Every structure is written in structure tokens, then in C-alpha cells.
């Protein structure tokens, strides 16, 4: 999911093999990438805006990242492969299940969360060189290892990388050019208490360095203040449900420029918007 500066959404509609553009306040979107059939574009996982007005899409089933001209016109052309397309694997030119991506526009770096390879890759957008950013490629729980990483986000002010290390039930912070992770949320074991996470899948940060986490297994969104030892619930109840105060396996979160919170509520097949001032959607 991508939110542009005008509040319009670009939605990676994975089950329908497409990216949908939904203008602000619209009730119906239009397809801007993919054709709703399994073919050359098999199954999307993530979308974001990258350098020079390109829409970057993870083509999950074909193990590659595609770049499309950023357009709101229905029927965009086929994308150009920028990473992968050499089959599934763990070589540097291969990926395996990239569900989340993030862009550091200030430094022109494109980060890919390579889920099953237990690593984060970094593509330099100026010279198209790809390298390992963090993780060892082998699952682990020490400060240089990851275990099925999912959501990632960048603090563009500092260049720090935040990673939801899902099977370690923690969020790791990696300072710019460091491979040593610092646990900023969770990390003891999985659970339902406010100091626990359960299969976290997405992370965002605010200008103050506070961390926001899609705590998927607990059906809630947590805010974790800087240096805090536990989070607080800002969306969801902790119990799966379909009411406007509940979530069912939230998998992605984003803020718009007005600090409204958008949540991909996966098992309810919807996107919810929460006004944090009123704690409702």
C-alpha cells in the first residue's frame, strides 16, 4: 500500500494479481498494473513509489521486482525487471518472497525485505548495484541475524533501518551502514502483554522516533515510544473481529501527511483508516 501526498492510495491487491489506484474519497478504484489474471504478472506483494516517478512492485510468484511508470491511467504497460527474474534462490541476484519494500529517497537507496532468505537487500538507485544490507541469510536470533523479516521502513533523517523480525517477535533498528541490530520493541518471546509482540509484520516511525507496529498475531496496532519497555494499543482490540474498532491479522500500516493511520486488515479484506485523535476509523 502506498499513500501519495494527496491522500490517494495505490493498493497491492495480491489475490487479484494487480495494483489498484483509489483516489481520495472514491468508492471504486482502477487497475494501474496487472490484469487480474495469472500470467506475466503472477502475484503482487508490495508497492511503493521510488526514484523518478516509478512504481515499484514485488511480483511475488515470479521472484522479481518490477518498475512501472507511475500513472493513474488504467492499463499501464508491462513493467521492467530491476531485481530478480533468475528464479527462486539465495544468490545475490535472486530473491525469495519479498513482501515489503522501502525507499530512502535522500540517499537514493531501495531496500527489499527478502523474507525466506532472512536478509534485507539494498539497491543503489544511482548505479543499480545490489548488495546485502543486514541479516546473514541464515535464520537466527542474535543481533546480526533475522528470522523471517517482513516490514521495513527508513528514517530518512538518519538513514536508520527498522525491520519487523517476525519469528523473533521483535522490531530491530539498524543504524546507517551497521549490521548490528538494536531491539526497539518486543524480543523476549511472543505473547499478548503490552511488552510482547506476536508475529509483527509492519513498522512505521514518526518524526519523534516513536515506532508503530502491526502486531499481526495479536490483531492490533501498537505505538512504542522511544526507550519504552512496552507499547500501547492505538488500533484494534487484541481480539480478531470485523467491527470498526477491530482488526483481523493486520499486515501493513502507513501514515498520510495528516497523520491518519491506514491499516491493511488482511483477513477482513479491507483497508481501515484511523484518526488517532479520536481513536476510531
Automatic annotation (TrEMBL):
<dbReference type="InterPro" id="IPR001258">
    <property type="entry name" value="NHL_repeat"/>
</dbReference>
<feature type="repeat" description="NHL">
    <location>
        <begin position="188"/>
        <end position="227"/>
    </location>
</feature>
<dbReference type="GO" id="GO:0005576">
    <property type="term" value="C:extracellular region"/>
</dbReference>
<protein>
    <recommendedName>
        <fullName>NHL repeat-containing protein</fullName>
    </recommendedName>
</protein>
<dbReference type="Pfam" id="PF01436">
    <property type="entry name" value="NHL"/>
</dbReference>
<keyword id="KW-0325">Glycoprotein</keyword>
<feature type="repeat" description="NHL">
    <location>
        <begin position="137"/>
        <end position="177"/>
    </location>
</feature>
<dbReference type="InterPro" id="IPR011042">
    <property type="entry name" value="6-blade_b-propeller_TolB-like"/>
</dbReference>
<keyword id="KW-0732">Signal</keyword>
<keyword id="KW-0677">Repeat</keyword>
